Phosphoribosylglycinamide synthetase (Reticulibacter mediterranei), 423 residues
Amino acid sequence: MDMRERQEQKRVLLLMSPATYRGGAFLSAARSLNIEVVVGIDLPETLAEYWHVPLGLDFSDIPASLQTISEYVQQHHIDAILSVDDSASELAAHASQMLGLAHNSPHATEAARDKFLMRQLMSVGGAPCPIFRNFPLNDDPRRIAGEVSYPCVLKPRRLSGSRGVIRANNPEEFVVAFQRLKRILLSEGCSEHETSFLVEDFIPGREVALEGLLTDGQLQVLALFDKPDPLDGPFFEETIYVTPSRLPQQMQQAIAQCVAAAASSLGLREGPVHAELRVNERGPWMLEIAGRSIGGLCSTVLEFGSGMCLEELILRHAIGEDVVSVERDYHSAGVMMIPIPAAGMLRAVHGVDEASAVPLITGVEITAQLHHPLVPLPEGASYLGFIFARGETAAEVEEAIRQAHRCLRFNIRREIPVLSVHK
């Protein structure tokens, strides 16, 4: 590459796991912006060579991955490093620090993934969050059950997507929830003697999600989503997101201030953030904040300026362009992450064409594979698919999504005879 080409075309290193939903959207956005992308995937070197992946990295081995990236940049310039999902956020921070690129500190990215550290920093930083305690996984659940208040929520420190998050209303439910969470963590390879988990007060109220972008510590709100379905447990499977929020403007401002305080308390200063909050008569409460954009295919419903998608906005920001003045399209938009109604083998899906024909529905995408096992929360980590809608008001978008969902029928075979589940 000659100097002129080097100056004209930016190059971004995208770090992603092999199973991510988000890779295609970022690659498509990069092509539209004429940004060269180098993909770093969490794969052993031999598999990376087989799949023709430029950079095979072990996200769990940061020193080795940094060495690989360092060797790469000796021959190729890099203008920005982005982690597509949570799995490589810490590696992205370390690598950006090594190369002198705009980044969040490694400590901030660790806090955004470790819920115990997150809670500690939020409490010190003044971001309202639930009362919490940390317990070792090898502790006696009956002893803990007698010490905590109810209702409470048991929560793993590092799993995402509500995996392992379970509500308990009394000591008996606590013991059952503890045993279930312990099985989940042990199945993930966690050590019983080295792993701990959180128990925090259950915060009543409605849940919202904020999508934002940080520039030198300043928060730009990109979208505020209402979650109209109640999320009261015992598990916390998210379903519908609708934007713009129907909350009063004063509450929306309070939510933005709460997220800004949370980001500051963790030390997050650059790039996308996705925050989850509860809202009640006492105001907003921080649940979690992640140093990444919204997960799954949910970003599809967001549009900015004259047709810019969220991934384009993030990439423009990463390479140093000014995006502060860019605003979201005025239309209401929504997405449903289709929940898994039962464990078993997915045999068939019916009603997709019917659901797609519902007015305001812009897409129905079934991502679950036929003849593959389905695992619902709290053990599972995926959805059946996504329903997308756009319209003039949030209310009509929500109703369109619900109508489309009623059209879908999922045939799931359990261990005993075939079961047809109608949603």
About this structure: The two ends are 55 Å apart (CA to CA). The longest strand covers residues 206-215.
